[in-house]
Design brief:
Blueprint lengths: L4 E5 L5 H17 L3 E5 L12 E4 L2 E2 L10 H10 L10 H16 L1
Parallel strand pairs: 1-2
Antiparallel strand pairs: 1-3, 3-4
């Protein structure tokens, strides 16, 4: 069975790789899911290389075609059959991660 939450990241991580690792940390903590960060030289955004955030082996796709949003992640969790309703305010916590990231890297 694939790791529930996996990040494909370059090493050292760049912008989206860092953001996706932060998202994965929050998902792991909030939902009690195992997570793994895989370092790769393969560049394949939202696919088999970096940067990518995978849920149950499926790379999540950003609705804007560039960067995953909290809404994209929550939709991906639902599509994967993961119940995240018990994790109160998950979307707002992911929003806060994205806001801090955008302030820091803007």
């Amino acid at each position: 069975m694939p790791q529930p939450i996996k990040v494909h990241s370059q090493h050292p991580p760049g912008g989206r790789c860092t953001l996706y690792a932060l998202y994965a940390e929050e998902l792991s903590s909030s939902l009690g899911l195992a997570r793994r960060v895989v370092h790769t030289d393969c560049r394949d955004a939202h696919g088999e290389g970096s940067p990518a955030l995978l849920v149950k082996g499926v790379a999540l796709q950003p609705s804007d075609g560039v960067i995953l949003s909290p809404e994209d992640i929550c939709a991906g969790l639902a599509d994967a059959g993961l119940d995240w309703s018990a994790a109160s305010n998950l979307t707002s916590r992911l929003d806060a991660i994205q806001d801090r990231f955008l302030e820091e890297f803007a």
